[in-house]
Amino acid sequence: MRETLTILGDSLKLLRARKLFWIVVGISLVVGLLYASIGFNEEGATFLWFQVARNELLVEGTELSKMFYILLFTNFIIPHWLGFLAVLLSILTSCSVFPELMKEGSIETVLSKPVSRWKIFFVKYLGMLGFMAAPLTLFCLIVFLALGLRAEVWKWEVFLAVPLLTFVYSILYSFAVFVGVWTRSTLFALLATMMLWGVCFLVHLTELGFYSRIRNANAGLVQEGLELVDTGEKQEVPEDHLRYYNLIRKSTWVLPKPRKTTLLTKRFLIFDDELGEFAGVSLIGIGAQVPEEGIMREAQIEAEKRMSVVEILLPSALFQVVMLGMGGWIFARRDF
Could you list the residue ranges that cross the membrane (predicted)? Predict the structure, then answer.
């Protein structure tokens, strides 16, 4: 047990010694405080000490101002900062940990401890998850207080972002660890991880695109600009669209789903009795002062809930088990 805690402590020391870790913490703190600085008064929206929007729909106490504040977190901050940039910076920093660990001089010191190689491997991996969990916890605490004080919404579900987005990071990092242990190259591990992330994102966009076309055609909906128009007649779906969509859906059971896992945070926060009225609403609609209703909103809700939580998390969890299993096997069997 003492040896395990020593390895875990070494991982935490390594985190604190890396500048990018503190950069991620600092940016998370700044983004959280900027979010908390957005407010509403009798004229409209404010930011810091400035009046940034004069609009009767965004005055303090209105449902639209509350909706705007919540959706700014779920529709913008989560997918762009927490789900992309924070994960990217974390991967950039931690990708070199295992290749550096296996260098001559470092590995001998680690293996001199009376601990099995499998335990060293997994404890080191778990320790690096703190790179994502620590700034996430700080950020979610700020958002939780901001939502409560600004929008009068006290939602403990905000803290679900910590395990979910740490899980997103662990999906990619497990692959980086496998490639890093296999090749002993930080650069190769980083490039391979970015390629995997890109492929997963492209599959996500392609699957969503085909789903939307098929769903709209079956419902008799036609896209006209930014709006969906109900023609009242079911549209014909090309056979190749159905074939490609079924093929892509099958591939999603093999590939991990970092993007869909990221969006689960919004799903857990929005799709309940208290905030259900905000489901299917976008920031663009609020900005145009015409929040989605009827057809557009129903289509958005169906798209966001088209996969169950199990369909999203299980393939990603199995992917990590396989990657860590192969990485641990290589680490345990390699001659140092």
Answer: 20-40, 67-92, 122-146, 158-180, 187-205, 312-332
CB 248, CB 210: distance < 8 Å = yes
Contact 40, 47 (CB under 8 A): no
What is the C-alpha to C-alpha distance for residues 316 and 167, in angstroms, rounded to an integer? 9
pTM here? 0.85
Closest CA to 245 of 216, 203, 199: 203
What's the pLDDT tens digit per position in 81-106?
888 998 998 898 888 889 988 887 77
Identify which of 37, 36, 27 has the alpha carbon closest to the alpha carbon of residue 134.
27
What is each CA distance from 121 to 10, 179, 186, in whole angstroms? 13, 14, 17
In this predicted model, what pLDDT tens digit does every residue of 266-312 receive, in sequence order?
A: 888 775 544 445 555 555 555 444 444 555 566 666 777 778 889 89
Nearest alpha-carbon partner for 293 in 227, 242, 205: 227
Alpha-carbon distances of 222 from 219, 233, 305, rounded to whole Å: 9, 10, 21
Residue 174 contacts residue 168 (beta carbons within 8 Å): no
